[in-house]
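Researcher: Please translate sequence to structure tokens.
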Amino acid sequence: MVPSPRNHLYRLVLLLIVAIMGFVWIKGWFVPAGWDEQKWFRTGALEELKELPIMYAGNTRCIDGCHGKTAKDHRAIGYKLAGGVHEHLSCESCHGPLYQSGHDKLAPALVPRDSGLCLRCHDDIAARPRMVGLFSESLMAHKALDVKRDSNCVQCHDPHAPRKKVVTAARPQEGDAEFTSVAALAEGACNSCHRPGVPFMPMIEGQPEAYLKAVMKQHRDGTRHSLVMGDLLKGYSNENIDTLAKYYSKQKWVSAGESPRPDLVSAGAVLHQRRCAGCHGPDGRRAFGMTPRLAGQTLSYTTTQLKSFLDPKTKLPDEVMRMIVAGLTPADIDALAHYYAAEPVSDRQGDDLPLVIDSCNSCHRPGFLDMPMIAGQPEQYLRTVMLQQRDGTRSTRVMADLLRGYSDQKVTELARHYAKSKWVSAQDQTNDAWVKAGNALHQSGCAGCHGPDGRRAEGMTPRLAGQPAAFIESALMNYKNPKLKQPSQAMRVAAASLSPTDMQTLAHYYASNPEPSAGKAEPPAPVALVDVSSIVTGCDGCHVDSDSDPLIAGQPEAYLRTVMQQFLDGTRDGPTMAKIMKKYDAAQIASLARHYAKMKWTSAGSETKPDLVSRGKALHAARCSTCHANGGRKADGTTPRIAGQPIEFIESEIQRYQDPAVKLPSRFMRSAVETLNAEEVSALAHYYASQGN
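Model: Translation complete:
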């Protein structure tokens, strides 16, 4: 009988299994315990080495013999070594063994003078902890100083105290011991790299104190990418960093002094004016607040820094610079670096208005990131917003720095200039479906203040039509963020109920720059007005002189027609009014609206309580004054007059908006009143009732 081929395969598999098991058994028998693939040494070896006794003289013999801790001794190494980085090393680690047993006379100690000894511990080895490698925490510094493996380490470092330590708990003051030690640190350590002729290193003398503080703390805390500076500053307290920043901010600026290419300087000048002049001044020399001086920096530093801003993996504390440099090509980066290295001097110095305007225009222009368009906006709005940014009542780090030194007069002049300028739209690309959805959302809530198409620009109401979509979306998100300072309570209320999708659709609607007629609802079909004298008699009984029902004489025609149509269509809840309106056709509704709009307003004359009126006034100013201006007397378009209405009606209407079960078309009104408690509702009602005639 012929053997099956499968039997050979079974035997082969069996042999392989036996071989593997044998290998594992032999490996486990011969390889000592504690070895695994995760480490390059045996587990426990370090602890065993620590337990070994000192075989030679030891530190005690050296210190007690010659190198004691007082100045009278041959050399007070013991004190320095005990306080230095090498405090746990034995003397033999560097100076070789000294015979102890049976010898009265010690062998002469070795005094190494080359880098070979230091590299035993500080060489760049992958398995060694990063903090002890020679080219680890000070990699860039050593390379910048052209330190090689055969360089003499003791030229710069005292082996017994290789690194100065500046750590105190108290805040140092200029003139005290720590300020002196920080100055010594700057001279001995920082300036060895931050000086002309050292590539990749920024010039830091004369930079703004606030900027230096922030950047060093960001390096230390890991929020700004820099392995070298992160390691160097990790042991520094806020007080140490503050002192170091103060020291360098008081020094005189020293430029790198490099020779740039003239052709690249010219190209860089154009890029600077288009992208950077708004913050960094007409020639890159501005150094104020969080804005560092760029003119005079090294080519390699500026190039590396700009490339790091373009790298999405680079840690940055905010996205401002990443957005500003977006789209720069390698050629653009080289041009900017050469421009700043040339240390240009603009013939337009100072803060004269034309220069300031040019700086503003470098950012506030179509196609530049998500910057708002400001030309043609209302003067009052521009002035108020700039003052809020300058004074810190509106959150914006960049604008706060730029406006910090501006007087009220200069802010007013800027606002007046831009208010008189012609509006220019951002011309963003938009999504048609989002534009349509945004239009519906705008009409249901925003049109009351910003007009039927978002083009209204008057008083404190800015034009939204034509703004960049990213700006609109960002602004709405800021209004929803309680951590950001935004003085407009009305806008906080308006944005509170918006979802991310709502914000996106609104942003695309405004960015589409709707035509003056695009945002308006379709006009009703023209109807012939009819005689309604027999109808108004019944309406007058409730709506002309009442203590509980709304007064409608003198209200806007568009408002009256819209509300009556909503009752008829069922989009506004009101059982009684819905039944009544079903009796009338479009001509009668239009005629009723025209009739009451032409009548003179007469207030209800409700009795009010002064304490509630006072509180209601404050609530009105914070929540309602933007739409219902002039104490609620405004009556325009679809905005009704509420001043002089009966207290009972106002309270009832607010409560209806607070009730999610009641069908009402204005989601903006819902978000405006949803957080009001009963006492606040009553206060608003008393305030508006007090504002009659």
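Researcher: Any highlights?
Model: The longest helix spans residues 5-30.
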